[in-house]
Design brief:
Helix content is 23%, strand content 18%. It has helices at 25-32, 56-68, 76-86, 95-106, 148-151, 203-212, 234-241, 311-321, 425-436, 438-445, 472-478, 483-492, and strands spanning 47-52, 88-92, 127-128, 136-137, 140-141, 181-184, 189-191, 199-201, 217-223, 246-252, 268-274, 282-287, 290-293, 354-359, 362-367, 381-386, 404-406, 410-412, 416-422. The strands form five sheets. A nine-stranded mixed sheet has the order 3-2-1-6-9-11-10-12-13, with helices on both faces. A three-stranded mixed sheet has the order 15-14-18, with no helix packed on it.
C-alpha cells in the first residue's frame, strides 16, 4: 500500500521493431512544447498524427486541449466531444496499431462502443486504417519502393503498405481537411530484399507527404542520417537543409537518449517546420545529459552539401577552406577498388607470382589475373581503410577503422577502399599517420552519419604534403585553431586504436 508507483502504460509496451518505435510520453511532450501554446486554447485548431502507433501523440494533444479549452467550453463532456470530433485526427500504421491508438485516445478499440468517450457513429472514429496493397511497377512499389519479392504477401500477412504515403492525394483521408499541426514519429525503413538485411529509408517519404498538406506546423522525430545524405536520401537532405522554414532542430547524437534500448546509427532528431515564418534555425544538441544550444544558423552552410551538426565544426571548416587546398576525397577510390567482392578469399599460403589480398579477417594470396580493375595500383604504395565502420561507437568517437599500409604487389576486396596511390613508401606511411590524427577524423565526422565511409565523407579533409609527417599539434597550428576548437576536437575524437 505504501508503493504509489503508477507507470504510464505507454512507457511499458515493447517496440514493434527498431523501425517502428513507440514514442515515450515525455518525448512527445517535448515536441509539443515547441508549438505555440495558444494552439491548445483555440477550439478551431486541428491536429493530425498520420502514422499513429500507440496513440500517445493524440492522447497528449487531447490532454492539452482539455486544459486549454476549459474556459471556452466549460462543460467537460461537451469539451471532450468537441476535441474528439473537431480537432484530433489520426491515421494508423497497421490494423493492430489502429486498435491500440483508439484504446489510448477513446478508451475503447472501437470508437462507437459504449465504452468510447468519443461517441462516434463508426468503429474508426477519427483514427483511420484501411488495409492496402502495394502498387507494383518493375518489382517495386511505386509509392514506397518496397520489394515485391519481400512484401507481396497477399491478405494473410501485414503488407506494410502504409496508408499515408500510398496515395497521390493525402487530403482524401478526411475529406480534404486542412490541418494546423501535423506531428508524429513515422516508420524509419523497409527491408529492401538486399544482402545483409539491407534496408531502404522511408521516413523521408512521410515528411514529404506531410508537406504536401501545407500545415501551419510540422514536427517529426526521424533518424539523423539525412544530415549526410546516404542511400535514397540525397534529394531529401537537399530539401531539408535548404528549407528556411525549419526553425528548431533537436539533435540526439545517441538514439537511446530518446528511445531507451534502441540503437539507430547516427542518432535521431526532431524538428519544427513553420509554414508562415522562415529564418535561421535554433539547433539544440543532446549528448547524454549534456544539452548545448548553438548560435542560431541556417542548416545549409555555404560550400557544404550536408548539415554540419556542430557549430565548432563550422568554424574549423571555415579555417581549413581558407587554404584552398585539394581534398582527400580526390584520391579515395570507389567501392570495390579492385573489383573484388567481400566474399572473395585468397589462398592461405604464398605462391609464385602471388599478389597479397587484404581481405576481411586478414591477408590471402591471389593471382594477378583475378584482379578485375585498377591493376596498375597493385605495384604502387597506398593505404587501405575499412569501407564501413560503426558510427555509433561510444564517445569519444574513433570514426574510422585503423589505416593499413598498402605495400606494392597488393590489392584488397571491397571490405576496404584505397586512399592513394602515392609515390613512395614514406609518403604512404605519412598518409597513415595523417589519417590517424584526430583532426583528420573530426573533419570526416562532420559528413559521416552512418557506418559507411564512401569517398564523399572525406571531402572536407585537405590534402597535405606527405613527404613530411603530420601530427595533431602541427595541424592545429597550421590552421590556426583556437583553444576552444582544439578542446572540442579532443573531446569528440579518441586516439586511434
Amino acid at each position: 500500500m505504501e508503493n504509489n508507483y503508477n507507470p504510464d502504460v505507454l512507457n511499458c509496451i515493447a517496440n514493434l521493431s527498431n523501425d517502428e518505435v513507440f514514442t515515450p510520453p515525455e518525448l512527445v511532450n517535448q515536441m509539443l512544447d515547441l508549438l505555440p501554446q495558444d494552439l491548445f486554447r483555440n477550439p478551431e485548431t486541428t491536429f493530425l498524427d498520420p502514422f499513429t502507433k500507440s496513440g500517445v501523440f493524440l492522447r497528449e494533444i487531447v490532454k492539452r486541449l482539455d486544459t486549454g479549452l476549459a474556459a471556452v467550453i466549460p462543460d467537460c463532456q461537451e469539451r471532450i466531444l468537441h476535441i474528439m470530433h473537431k480537432q484530433v485526427f489520426g491515421i494508423a500504421l497497421t490494423e493492430l496499431t489502429s486498435l491500440l491508438a483508439r484504446r489510448t485516445v477513446y478508451c475503447s478499440k472501437y470508437a462507437d462502443s459504449d465504452h468510447s468517450i468519443g461517441r462516434f457513429k463508426t468503429k474508426e472514429g477519427h483514427i483511420l486504417y484501411t488495409p492496402m496493397q502495394h502498387t507494383w511497377q518493375n518489382g517495386r512499389c511505386k509509392y514506397c519502393g518496397a520489394s515485391k519479392d519481400v512484401y507481396d504477401r497477399g491478405d494473410a500477412a501485414e503488407t506494410y503498405a502504409y496508408n499515408f504515403i500510398h496515395t497521390n492525394n493525402p487530403k482524401y483521408f478526411f475529406n480534404n481537411m486542412t490541418f494546423d499541426v501535423i506531428i508524429g514519429n513515422p516508420p524509419y525503413q523497409l527491408d529492401d530484399g538486399g544482402a545483409q538485411a539491407s534496408a531502404t529509408p522511408i521516413y523521408n517519404l512521410f515528411v514529404e507527404q506531410a508537406l504536401k498538406l501545407k500545415p501551419r506546423y510540422l514536427s517529426m522525430i526521424i533518424p539523423a542520417r539525412w544530415f549526410g545524405g546516404g542511400k535514397g536520401l540525397d534529394d531529401f537532405r537537399k530539401l531539408m537543409i535548404e528549407d528556411k522554414h525549419i526553425r528548431v532542430l533537436h539533435d540526439f547524437l545517441d538514439a537511446s537518449d530518446c528511445f531507451p534500448g534502441v540503437e539507430i546509427k547516427g542518432g535521431v532528431c526532431y524538428f519544427l517546420w513553420d509554414r508562415d515564418n522562415q529564418g535561421v534555425c535554433r539547433i539544440v544538441t543532446h549528448k547524454k545529459d549534456e544539452i548545448t544550444e548553438q548560435k542560431p544558423r541556417f542548416l545549409k552552410e555555404k560550400g557544404s552539401d550536408v548539415f554540419i551538426r556542430y557549430s565548432e565544426g563550422v568554424s574549423v571548416l571555415h579555417k581549413v577552406r581558407k587554404h584552398n587546398e585539394k581534398t582527400i576525397d580526390t584520391i579515395v577510390s570507389s567501392q570495390k577498388p579492385f573489383g573484388l567482392r567481400t566474399y572473395v578469399h585468397g589462398e592461405s599460403k604464398h605462391f609464385t607470382d602471388a599478389v597479397s589480398l587484404y581481405e576481411r579477417g586478414g591477408v590471402g594470396y591471389i593471382k594477378r589475373s583475378e584482379i578485375v580493375r585498377n591493376q596498375q595500383w597493385t605495384d604502387k604504395y597506398k593505404v587501405y581503410i575499412s569501407a564501413a565502420y560503426n558510427a555509433g561507437d561510444s564517445y569519444p568517437h574513433q570514426i574510422l577503422g585503423k589505416p593499413i599500409f598498402g605495400p606494392t604487389n597488393s590489392c584488397c576486396t571491397e571490405t576496404y577502399v584505397v586512399i592513394g596511390p602515392v609515390k613512395t613508401e614514406t609518403e604512404a606511411k605519412h598518409l597513415c599517420g595523417y589519417i590517424s590524427t584526430k583532426f583528420f577524423r573530426f573533419l570526416v565526422m562532420l559528413k559521416k552519419t552512418s557506418q559507411h565511409a564512401p569517398a564523399s565523407v572525406y571531402s572536407f579533409v585537405p590534402l597535405q604534403d606527405f613527404s613530411e609527417p603530420w601530427t595533431d599539434e602541427k595541424l592545429y597550428k597550421k590552421y590556426n585553431l583556437t583553444e576552444e576548437e582544439i578542446a572540442f576536437i579532443e573531446s569528440m575524437i579518441r586516439p586511434m586504436e
